[in-house]
Each structure stands twice: as structure tokens, then as C-alpha cells.
TrEMBL record:
Function in brief: Thiolesterase that catalyzes the hydrolysis of S-D-lactoyl-glutathione to form glutathione and D-lactic acid.
One of the Pfam families matching this protein, by short name: HAGH_C
Enzyme Commission identifier(s): 3.1.2.6
Protein name: Hydroxyacylglutathione hydrolase
């Protein structure tokens, strides 16, 4: 808390202003290769979980830290991101929040979110970005005060999600939208796919020295049983081929020189699907 004292010759006025500190963010591995995330506000004690695919893994971390779960945030409806919702909600009476466009596919969703809206989580304002492509109603969650972006299965470290429901144009627009956030933004994605993504990226962008350096760092992290996320948006923009669609070298590598960016993205995504 910050105490501001304002004085004049006639009176003395004291105003109290709350200082919001960045969230504590804990990466929780779940299932085979998923990540969910615990977000904790020290002042209020509020704790949120993003995309809990497995309730037991979340409960273990909560118990170890003596945190009380108050909110559940979902980016999209896939089971490996919502399977823990109902158990955690029942155990903690947590508020369930997610994309309005997928309200029929996320049971018991209480607060639906749309692009342009915000949600106040214990004084931390989360901005909602609609990022369709992986699913048609997918959203990403941006906490400016913590420089944290939760991308679900839209943007991965060195890659992007599979295009299950949306179009190539929608998916590419979603990636461009995320790329416009500050370079210092930390990317928290839904899966540990970085090593596989790095191998594919190097097969396309083999002369990229930043990519080679990132690939080495990724292997070192995994060798030490450490997650490869979060990554920085600045690094992603320099190394992730799906954020570099407009670089002529990417188009040349896949035989699409001069093609429309949407066509280049669709081809790149197809190549990754079959890699």
C-alpha cells in the first residue's frame, strides 16, 4: 500500500492508494504434456487457475502453497483444458470464467468474456483477445500489469496450435493480433511442444541464428526437467515461423514466394501437421 499525504495551509488531506504488485505465476504440468497456470495475488490471497486439465495436479500445488482457489479461467473448450473445472469449482466454490462463444461447450461457465471486455481479478485487469483458429471461440488472456499473456492453444513457443475449427485467415489474424502486444510480454501457452516446434522451425528457417540459440536453450531446459515456458514475445517474433509469415525467407523455403500471407500460413501449418 502506498500512502499519499497532500497538505495545504488550510487543511491536511490523506489519501490511500493501493499498489498492485505483479501476480505470482506458477506453471503446473498436467496430463501428458499440458500446462495450466496458477495466478496468485499476495495482497488479497485470491488465486486463479488457467485451463486446468487435471484437478489433482492443481490441488497438489494449492495445498503445498496454502492457497485458496477463487477463480477458474478457460481459453477454450477442449477437454484437456477444462477437465478439472467442475471438481475444482465444487471443492473451492471458484468462479468459472471463459469465452462467451463457447459457453455451450464449457459446463457451468458463469462469466462469459468477449473481445474488448475486461475482468478485474483482485485488482489485476485482464484484457480479452478473441483468437479463433484452433477453436472458433478461443480467447487469449492478457494481464498488462504482469506482462503475461495466456494463449492456450493459439500461440506456442516456436509454433502455433492445430487449426481444428477456424480458417487460415482467422488463425493468422489471431497471431498478428498477439504479435502487436509489447515485446516484453511473457507467453504462457498450453503445451510443452517447444522441442518439436524447434525442430520444425529449423527445417524451414535453417539460417536463423536466433532460432538456433533458442533451440539450444530449449534442449538445456528440458535436460534439466525445466519448462520451456514462458517465452518472451520478442524472442517469438524473431524465431517462430508462424509469426514471421511476411518474411520472404519463410515463403521461399516452402515454395510460396510472392504468395498471399494466408496461403503461406496454410501451407506452413499443413507442413507442420505432417512433420
Amino acid at each position: 500500500m502506498v500512502l499519499n499525504i497532500i497538505t495545504s495551509s488550510k487543511n491536511c488531506r490523506i489519501s490511500l492508494k493501493m499498489q498492485v504488485f505483479p501476480l505470482q505465476i506458477v506453471t503446473v504440468p498436467t496430463l501428458l504434456d499440458n500446462y495450466c497456470y496458477l495466478l496468485h495475488d499476495e495482497i488479497s490471497g485470491s488465486t486463479a487457475v488457467v485451463d486446468p486439465g487435471d484437478a489433482d495436479a492443481v490441488e497438489t500445488v494449492l495445498a503445498g502453497r496454502h492457497w485458496k482457489l477463487t477463480h477458474i479461467l478457460n481459453t477454450h473448450h477442449h477437454l484437456d483444458h477444462i477437465n478439472g473445472n467442475l471438481i475444482l469449482k465444487k471443492n473451492h466454490n471458484a468462479i468459472l470464467i471463459g469465452p462467451k462463444a463457447e459457453i455451450s461447450r464449457i459446463p457451468n461457465l458463469e462469466i462469459p468474456l468477449v473481445e474488448g471486455s475486461t475482468y478485474d481479478f483482485a485488482g489485476h485487469i485482464v484484457s480479452i483477445l478473441e483468437t479463433p483458429g484452433h477453436t472458433i471461440g478461443h480467447i487469449s488472456l492478457y494481464f498488462a500489469d504482469s506482462q503475461a499473456l495466456f494463449t492456450g492453444d493459439t500461440l506456442f513457443s516456436l509454433g502455433c496450435g492445430k487449426m481444428f475449427e477456424g480458417t487460415a485467415r482467422q488463425f493468422l489474424d489471431s497471431l498478428f493480433k498477439l504479435s502487436k502486444l509489447p515485446d516484453s510480454t511473457k507467453i504462457y501457452c498450453g503445451h510443452e511442444y517447444t522441442a518439436s516446434n524447434a525442430r520444425f522451425a529449423i527445417s524451414i528457417d535453417y539460417s536463423n541464428e536466433d532460432l538456433k540459440k533458442r533451440s539450444k536453450e530449449v534442449n538445456e531446459l528440458l535436460d534439466n526437467n525445466q519448462p520451456t515456458v514462458p517465452s518472451l514475445l520478442s524472442i517469438e517474433k524473431a524465431t517462430n515461423p508462424f509469426l514471421r509469415i511476411k518474411d520472404p525467407k519463410i515463403a521461399l523455403a516452402i515454395g510460396k514466394s510472392g504468395a498471399d500471407p494466408v496461403e503461406i500460413f496454410a501451407e506452413l501449418r499443413m507442413l507442420k501437421d505432417n512433420f
